[in-house]
Amino acid sequence: MKKVLRPRRSTYILAALLVVAAAALVVAACGGSDTGASGGASASGSAAAAIEGFTPVPMSEGTILGAGASFPAPLYMKWGADYAGVSGVKLNYQSIGSGGGIAAIEAKTVDFGASDAPLEESELAAAGLVQFPMVVGGVVIVVNLDGVADGQLKLTPDVLANIFMGTTTQWDDPSITALNPGVSLPATKINVVHRSDGSGTTWIFTHYLTDAAGTIWTAGADKEIPWPVGVGGKGNEGVAASVQRLSGSIGYVEYAYAKQTGMTTTQLQNKDGSWVSPSIESFSAATANADWEGSLPSMYLILVNQPGADSWPITGASFILMQKDQADAARARTVFEFFDWAYTSGASAASQLDYVPIPENVYKLVQDQVWPTVAASGTPVWP
Known about the structure:
Layout: H1 9-30, H2 45-49, E1 63-68, H3 73-87, E2 90-95, H4 98-106, E3 112-115, H5 121-127, E4 129-144, E5 154-155, H6 157-165, H7 174-177, E6 191-195, H8 200-212, E7 231-233, H9 235-245, E8 249-254, H10 255-260, E9 264-265, E10 267-269, E11 275-276, H11 280-286, E12 315-323, H12 329-344, H13 347-352, E13 356-357, H14 360-370, E14 375-376, E15 379-380
Parallel strand pairs: 1-2, 1-3, 5-10, 6-7, 6-8
Antiparallel strand pairs: 3-12, 4-8, 4-9, 4-12, 4-13, 10-11, 14-15
């Protein structure tokens, strides 16, 4: 009998958070003045409409506008609900993918953009932006295979690269069965699911494949690539939903989406040759040697395929992007106050959702070295 996936309680929690976000969007859209974004003059309606999935919203007092990566979206929804309760300031965050988040902050239609694909220093300078890490998480491999339990299937970087290249097409391929003695793998087609939008999750995943299996993976590393095989889903939400619907499928999502919806994840062989499972501990291990101070001033840092026996190999940071030149100092300060709260009071919520909070020494570096470069009329808005 085919196994029926039943939603877990946490699935309803995530759904509720998304409803909160949607409600905030409606409130912001219905009220407030139609002033420009905090970075300067507002983008034209046509420019905003050109950003896929983005709904233009007027600026209003007491509401912070953000858009971008779906990777940290469950956490931002939780933070937004908690912060509104203690400050009265609402967060309206649109999960439209990292590419959309970059486009939205460049167009000055939001207070901040969010991207899991960091911009290099030259890109930041050209767009007049600053960038800083907000949280760290893990991208995990999810499968829909009857009879295969969570964490039971093992995959190496080479096997994974061959699957996503379309070279390995059957679940009972010898390269997979050799890694998984005792696991009953069906003689059926592998259905690959990938992102269809400009995605920081894709950026992290394809950088991992390039670094760990570069002789096999030749499709590139970026937010969007010409996928050799498979079907696309929009956002982490779309990939998760497609994998759950499609028997024999494999995809990649941020860990919170897999855990909260009860999806089947795999083990991976890391750079040290160890078999590891996704967890906040293995994500933390991968960030242990991260040189954030050396990444200044851009804070551009790639965390995939890190050494260490306990390191999860597909780990990445999610970044915030803001305009350096702010039109409204008070509004920009409100945004920084939210992020300051998130770094400190929001750390426990991050851990509960299996994200790795930014360590104190790192966020102090951000507040001392990056935030003071954001100014209104030449005067820093922080502190």
